[in-house]
Amino acid sequence: MSDVLERISKAVVVGDEDAIAKLTRAALDEGLSAKEILDGGLMPGMDYVGAEFKAGRMFVPEVLLSARTMKGSMAALEPLLAAGESIAVGKAIMGTVEGDLHDIGKNLVAMMMEGAGFQVIDLGVDVAPDAFVASVKKEKPDIVGMSALLTTTMRNMGRTIDALKEAGLRDQVRVMVGGAPVTADFARQIGADGTASSAPAAVDLAKGLLGLA
Ligand code: B1M
Asked: pTM, whole model, 2 decimals?
């Protein structure tokens, strides 16, 4: 790994938001492409963070800081990518279901998926079934991700899947669900394609659903 890519990786791991913009600029000045910076610096950094989080050696605030650091670099890379390079491994829309305002876990999943190369459109919290449907029509994602933290709102995941079916869109997307009360049995019952209990596991699931794992 080139020195600057290694430093970018380390900046992501330690969440050095001050250093990341300068390092990204330096890498571009060295002639590295946006994709090389993403694949060789940012993603290895986020992969490491994901593995440490999975192993219980890193915690939510640190992971959020790493993800924000990565976003700091992406802000410089995205205009270049838009100009020609396409790097997304898949497109996902993600939201916390209707009636539910919990978004810490959903944000973590979205950020880690971005770290793994997915384009993620975050619909926010309290997202009604119709809003998921409208976004699927507009964005044509590969994956719809839903999060719920309340036993009273998790049924809205099923309502959203029903709305996708009614709109004739269910077969065009993979649906993944998650959040503390969600079990594999529940995911099966409502007709989701899978569930994951953590953000790194959600990344693995998303890759698996698209045949990338
Ligand atoms: Co709320 N809350 N809360 N709360 N809250 C819980 C969930 C609760 C268990 C607390 C308790 O009573 N012990 C309880 C739910 C009980 C139940 O339903 N059986 C509860 C309640 C009752 C409520 C209110 C009703 C309280 C009230 O007002 N009376 C209210 C509801 C508001 C609403 O949503 N309409 C409420 C409000 C809030 C706050 C606003 C104060 C705040 C949310 C702030 C925010 O999110 N911006 C809050 C919080 C922080 C919690 C706790 C303390 C923490 C949740 C959290 O962020 N966990 C929670 C108790 C607890 O869990 N200890 C609690 C950390 C997060 C990283 O984990 O979200 O599970 P998690 O995400 C994980 C995985 O689940 C998975 O990956 C993530 C990362 O590893 N995952 C996915 C998540 N989404 C995924 C999607 C995927 C795949 C994996 O695919 C798409």
From this structure: 0.86
